[in-house]
Every structure is written in structure tokens, then in C-alpha cells.
Structure to design on (480 residues):
């Protein structure tokens, strides 16, 4: 029986919270040892599940689960090394554990990025701006609470390197989580991203505790590591998104799109607190905040451009036929209603003759190509202020203000065309109605429709009386 994702997340959070509550009551060394074991086990299980999945995956998905395998293995091994150091303290062993743990911390956000489908074009540029801005915001918080207090200590270089890696890791995870991800499979990168952000936050909290002389588990650091390990285990069992073009083509991800703004709010709150407590911000903070909010502004300009382009695209799709690019039925009725109020305006209704044999012989792709050619010819045969639309199937409609251009349209339409390497022709039955300034567009279309079918029936009767009536419609242009 599969446990719902929400219940798994709640269970992991409750276990981590319970462990955090118990830690203050345990001696320091046994507490660390228990923590190492509790973290090593889910990390090892995550590595195993990722490795098992890698044997059945290919491409980017396989790369993502392989990175997850290595990250989980490194994390588990690092905690086993820490456990050995608790049993027999050794500076070299502890250093090796730190190196292996940092490797896992770096690989985890890489796995998050690979879990999500790639981003292209303006979405990719926006993600890069988000990444840079989030890094700046998180660095502001880390500088105030971690790096600034450590400036006078001997471990400042190590602390700076650790902060840089953790800030980058958390930023990559947050930006990836904020992107639009396809369907339920988006849970995998977001859950793994939550693990990466949690691990980065707890690593910085642990560093802060060490600098300020607090217990190692203070401020949620003890249960936080266990929470991150549990989230990684859950993510290893979730399906990884495939590289599809359906949901991935959308630009925004609902509420998740606001996730990168959380670090900005934290940076503002931390900066305000610093200003109120000390009366001034240092030059480092001033410049970091200035660059960060410049990046945020650039990101907003890019978002406005994306939204504008998307609005134009959606408006075009709402009013145009997707195959031919001509106006669709709704747009034709909307725009044509005003044009037919002018007396003398001509309304033409065209139904192609000989189209079905093309569709039957050359397939739907051939039929589509013929329709596109017809649409292009109709457009070239009319003037800029004439209206051309595809009403559906092989039926087209035109509104011609002023001069009647039916003869020019007829000549363009019936010329032979090349479709998928074959020369074919289509004819047309044309119905015509002339506006008198009183009748509506629907009434004129009804008159044109009646005239079109009257002409079609007359031509069929004439063809039946001719000896060459057996010739296929698509072989000869039909007279209009």
C-alpha cells in the first residue's frame, strides 16, 4: 500500500520535531551518535532507491537519479565517519567527514536541477536572474548572522567557503522549485529541493551555533538534519518529470512562482534588524543589497516582457485558425459585423471542390498543406482592408468592402498547386451576397450559403450530362 505524499511529509516532520525535543535531554556525545545513525540510514536508503531506478532510466532522468545516488551515498558515509569520530576522536577523520558531507551538499542541488526539465529562451534568462538575486538575498542573511560574527576568528576562510556553497545550493533549489513543473511529477524536484534548502539552512545554523557558542543542536539544527535526510528519502521514491512539451511550455507555476521572493523578505527583515540594533549597515551589506534589488528589478522587467508577449500570443490564438493563420469563425463574425453596414460590401462564401480526393490520396498532412496553400492564395488575392477567414474544414469566407474582387480570387484559387510532390488542383463553389446596409452578417452569410449550394448543384448536374464527367474533381480546376 502506497502512503500518500502528504502523510509521508507530515510523518518525517513529526519525527524530526520529536528528535529535536529529545536532544537537549541527552548527553552531547550520545546525542551526536544517535543523530549520525538516524541520518545515515535514510540517506543510504535514498542512495539505494536512486541507484535501483538508474538502471531503467536514460538521458537527463538517468543523470538526475545517478547524482541522487552519489549524493545520498556521500551523506550516509559522512555521518558514519562522524559516528566513528564520536567513538574515537580524530581530527583527520573529522576533516574527511566534512569533505564528504560538503560533496553531498553540493551534489544535492545539482540533482534538484537535473530532476526538473530544462528551461530555454526567456525562461532560462529569468531563472538566471532569479538565481543571482536569491544568492544575494541569502548571502545578506548569512553575512549578518554567520560571516560578520566570524570575521575576527581563525575559521573565517572555512566559514566563507561553507557559506558560499550552501547559499548557492539553497538558491539553485529555490529557483528550481519555483519553476513550472509538469503535473504530479513536479513533486520529486520540489521535495528534493526542500531537502536541499533545509540542509543548507541547518548547515548555516550549525555554523552560527558554533561561532556563538550554542549547543550544536540549538535553533532546530538537530532535527533539521534528520528532516533533510527524510525528505531526500521521500524524493527518491517519487517519479522524476520527463522532458515533455506540454506543461513545460507554460511560463508560470502558480503559487510556487513566489518562492524566490521569500529570501528577499528575509534579507529585508535581517537588514532592518541590523539597522535598528546597530544604527548603520556595513558597506558589504549596502552593496550586496543594492546589487540584489537591481537584479530583482531586472527580473521584473523581463517578467513584464514575457507576460506581454504571452498576452499577444494568446490573443492571436483566440482569433486565428491554428492551421492557416486566417481569422477564425468567431473573429470573422466580430469584425465583419461592422464592415457589412456599408452598402455594396460583398460577402463571399467558398467551399472547395476536389479537396476530399487530395485528402484521401495524400493523407491529412497533404490536405493540410493544400488548405495552407489556399489560405495563402486567398490572402494574396485580396487587399489590406479585406477580411478573409476559415470557417472550418474546407470552407472559407471573405468580406470585400468596395470593389468586388471575386474574379481575382477565382483565378488565384483554381491554379494548380504542388502538394507533397504532386501537382493537384482544387475548384470552388462560391456563393455571393451584397450588403445593403440593412441586413446583418448572418443574413448575408445565409444568402451566400444558399447561392453556393445552388451553384454546386447546378455544376454537378452539368457535369453529369458531359461525357468527361468521370474525371476526378482534384484533377481539374472547377469553374466558379
Amino acid at each position: 500500500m502506497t502512503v500518500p505524499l502528504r502523510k509521508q511529509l507530515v510523518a518525517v516532520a513529526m519525527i524530526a520535531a520529536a528528535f529535536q525535543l529529545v536532544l537537549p535531554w541527552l548527553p552531547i556525545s550520545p546525542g551526536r551518535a544517535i543523530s549520525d545513525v538516524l541520518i545515515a540510514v535514510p540517506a543510504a536508503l535514498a542512495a539505494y532507491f536512486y541507484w535501483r531506478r538508474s538502471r531503467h532510466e536514460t538521458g537527463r532522468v538517468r543523470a538526475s537519479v545517478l547524482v541522487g545516488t552519489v549524493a545520498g551515498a556521500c551523506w550516509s558515509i559522512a555521518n558514519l565517519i562522524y559516528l566513528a569520530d564520536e567513538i574515537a576522536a580524530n581530527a583527520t577523520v573529522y576533516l574527511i567527514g566534512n569533505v564528504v558531507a560538503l560533496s553531498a551538499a553540493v551534489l544535492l542541488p545539482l540533482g534538484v536541477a537535473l530532476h526538473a526539465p530544462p528551461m530555454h529562451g526567456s525562461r532560462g534568462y529569468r531563472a538566471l536572474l532569479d538565481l543571482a538575486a536569491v544568492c544575494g538575498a541569502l548571502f545578506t542573511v548569512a553575512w549578518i548572522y554567520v560571516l560578520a560574527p566570524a570575521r575576527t576568528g581563525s575559521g573565517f576562510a572555512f566559514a566563507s567557503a561553507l557559506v558560499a556553497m550552501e547559499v548557492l545550493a539553497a538558491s539553485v533549489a529555490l529557483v528550481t522549485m519555483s519553476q513550472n513543473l509538469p503535473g504530479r511529477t513536479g513533486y520529486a524536484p520540489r521535495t528534493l529541493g526542500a531537502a536541499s534548502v533545509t540542509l543548507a539552512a541547518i548547515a548555516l545554523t550549525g555554523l552560527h551555533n558554533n561561532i556563538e557558542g550554542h549547543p550544536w543542536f540549538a535553533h532546530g539544527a538537530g532535527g533539521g538534519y534528520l528532516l533533510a535526510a527524510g525528505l531526500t528519502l521521500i524524493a527518491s521514491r517519487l517519479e522524476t518529470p520527463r522532458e515533455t512539451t506540454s506543461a513545460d511550455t507554460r511560463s508560470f507555476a502558480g503559487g510556487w512562482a513566489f518562492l524566490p521572493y521569500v529570501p528577499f523578505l528575509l534579507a529585508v527583515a535581517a537588514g532592518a534588524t541590523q539597522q535598528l540594533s546597530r544604527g548603520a549597515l556595513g558597506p558589504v551589506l549596502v552593496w550586496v543589497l543594492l546589487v540584489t534589488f537591481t537584479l530583482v528589478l531586472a527580473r521584473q522587467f523581463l517578467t513584464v516582457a514575457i507576460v506581454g508577449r504571452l498576452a499577444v500570443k494568446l490573443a492571436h490564438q483566440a482569433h486565428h485558425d491554428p492551421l492557416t493563420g486566417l481569422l477564425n469563425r468567431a473573429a470573422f463574425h466580430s469584425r465583419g459585423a461592422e464592415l457589412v453596414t456599408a452598402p455594396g460590401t460583398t460577402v463571399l462564401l467558398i467551399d472547395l471542390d476536389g479537396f476530399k480526393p487530395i485528402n484521401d490520396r495524400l493523407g491529412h498532412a497533404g490536405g493540410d498543406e493544400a488548405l495552407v496553400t489556399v489560405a495563402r492564395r486567398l490572402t494574396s488575392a485580396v487587399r489590406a482592408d479585406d477580411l478573409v477567414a476559415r470557417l472550418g474544414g474546407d470552407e472559407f469566407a471573405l468580406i470585400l468592402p468596395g470593389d468586388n474582387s471575386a474574379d481575382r480570387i477565382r483565378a488565384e484559387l483554381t491554379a494548380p498547386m504542388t502538394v507533397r510532390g504532386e501537382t493537384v488542383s482544387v475548384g470552388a463553389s462560391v456563393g455571393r451576397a451584397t450588403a445593403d446596409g440593412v441586413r446583418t452578417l448572418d443574413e448575408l452569410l445565409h444568402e451566400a450559403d444558399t447561392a453556393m449550394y445552388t451553384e454546386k448543384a447546378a455544376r454537378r448536374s452539368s457535369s453529369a450530362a458531359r461525357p468527361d464527367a468521370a474525371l476526378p474533381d482534384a484533377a481539374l480546376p472547377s469553374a466558379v
Q: What stands out?
A: The domain at 329-475 is CATH 3.30.70.270 (Alpha-Beta Plaits).
